[in-house]
Amino acid sequence: MAEDLMTAPELAKYLKVELRTVYRYLKDADLPAIRMGGRWRFRKEDIDRWLLNHAPQHAHTRQQPRILVVDDDETFRSLLDDFFQTKGYLFRGAENGEAALALIKDMTFELLLVDLLMPGMGGIEFIRQAKRLRPDIRILVLTAYGDKESAIEALRLGVTNYLEKPIQNLQALASSMELAMKP
After folding, report:
1. Per residue in 165-183, pLDDT tens?
2. Fold held by 66-181
């Protein structure tokens, strides 16, 4: 368990903030922490959840969009995580529809990127259930196994856009995402 915990300096490095900012978050923003031996410790999972629900305040007024990627391909999720961080998005990944539904119940996301072909619950069924939980949520489909029927069904369910993998141009994906998130 101790190896899963970060110290305050490690958390500052993880969040890319000064150490005093971590302590300010502890005091002012209900930062999830554990007191051990007179020192604060932090679980990465708790911090990630806190970040998604309490986007840090920045000098600019644009809030960081929260993106959930639902895809069983861990390499693809990792690639998008790296890309989204450079764009200033708050990223969360889920390996299947069941895990994603649990996250949607706990957190608010501006956009979902959903693969259609996943083990267990497929993408179309996930989209149905996600729309029941959050009718206004924006969804982009990213799939390597799309067909005309699934595209029609996804659009009927309110999907904003339907893109085929492999994604050749991440900047084009970012543009599609920005369009999808516009009110």
Report:
1. 888 888 888 888 888 888 7
2. Rossmann fold (3.40.50)
- Exposed e or buried b per residue across 48-68, where buried means at least 16 C-beta atoms within 10 angstroms of its C-beta: ebbbbeeeeeeeeeeebbbbb
Pairing of strands 34-36, 66-70: unpaired
- At the second CATH level, the architecture of 2-53 is Orthogonal Bundle (1.10)
Q: Is the pLDDT of residue 73 over 70?
A: yes
Longest dimension (CA), the chain: 60
What digits encode the pLDDT tens for the residues 45-62?
888 888 777 654 443 334
Region of 53 (left: φ > 0; alpha: ψ -120 to 50; beta: rest) is: alpha
The kind and range of the H/E element at 142 are strand 138-143
At position 180, the amino acid (one-letter code) is: A
pLDDT, tens digit, 9 for 90 and up, residues 90-116: 889 999 999 999 999 988 899 999 999
Three-state SS sequence of 37-55: CCEEEEEHHHHHHHHHHCC
Residue ranges of the domains in the chain? 2-53, 66-181
Residue with tokens 């002012």: 28
The pTM (predicted TM-score) of the whole model is: 0.66
